[in-house]
Amino acid sequence: MNKNVYFLSDAHLGSLAIEHGRTQERRLVRFLDSIKTKAAAVYLLGDMFDFWNEYKYVVPKGFTRFLGKISELTDMGVEVHFFTGNHDLWTYGYLEEECGMIVHHKPITTEIYGKVFYLAHGDGLGDPDRKFKLLKWMFHNRTCQRLLNAIHPRWGMSLGLNWAKHSRLKHADGKEPGYMGEEKEHLVLYTKDYMKTHKNIDYFIYGHRHIELDLMLSRKTRMMIIGDWIWQFTYVVYDGEHIFLEEYVEGESRP
């Protein structure tokens, strides 16, 4: 019998805009503990931290429960894949070396139990916003990264966390807008276009949007946006035959 493969994203741990941050992290850790003997792999599809930037001798304060649990899973032989999002892309080796994670900086296409998955955080895919594209270029630019790391961690981390807080509070109640429909949702439009030249993909799975979406785009192809771990506590689980979008409710899973 196959062990399960899990997909989750967007915990934004450490956010200054989330009042229940410690409770949220503990809930995430309890979930990871509940699946550790059932999991072959866990895919963290971006923005697990609200801001993460590694300095040469310093990493961000906090997250010890989460990172400790991830390290326990990787020590047990569970593959943990970490996709950088638009909030936590400044990683330079610590997560791999200390926690045993496999870090991805771009979308990947991979085969799992005979099915082909396209996995990505989702930021910028299909989004025509020029301001966002400029920011993404700056965030990924090596010179800009070196300039950020030239700032003392006290000020660099404060800058990043407050920027992220301001970005979240621009939305009502700190939440993303709801599903906009197939004709307006950037990730749906991007996926449909990508399918035209990549007909072999069975599942597209994304984070980023903080909504739950399970959409059949053809007889073969299914697209999922997997919510978040701030308010929804949702994830995808694949057992080699079936794939489900589920919600973690303390001690149980609910389809």
Primary descriptors:
seven-stranded mixed β-sheet; single chain; 7 helices; 255 residues
Mean pLDDT score: 88
Question: Helix and strand succession?
Answer: EHEHEHEEEHHHHEEEEEE
Strand order of the largest sheet: 4-3-2-1-10-11-12
Give the biggest sheet: 7 strands, mixed
How many individual β-strands? Answer: 12
Question: What is the CA-atom radius of gyration, in angstroms?
Answer: 18 Å
Fraction in helix: 25-40%
Strand content: 15-25%
Broad shape:
globular
Low-confidence spans:
none
**Helical element count?**
7
* Class from helix and strand fractions: alpha/beta
Give the N-terminus to C-terminus distance in angstroms.
Answer: 21 Å
Provide a quick synopsis of the model.
This protein has 255 residues and is of the alpha/beta class. 31% of the residues lie in helices and 23% in strands.
Plain-language structure description:
Helix content is 31%, strand content 23%. It has 255 residues and is α/β, with parallel strands linked by helices. The strands form 2 sheets. A 7-stranded mixed β-sheet has the order 4-3-2-1-10-11-12, with helices on one face. The chain has a 5-stranded mixed β-sheet with strand order 5-6-7-9-8, with helices on one face. α1 (21-35) runs parallel beside α2. The mean pLDDT is 88.
List the helices and strands and how they pair.
Elements: E1 4-8, H1 21-35, E2 39-44, H2 64-75, E3 79-83, H3 94-99, E4 102-104, E5 108-112, E6 115-120, H4 130-140, H5 142-149, H6 153-169, H7 186-195, E7 203-206, E8 212-216, E9 222-226, E10 234-238, E11 243-249, E12 252-254
Helix pairs in contact: 1-2
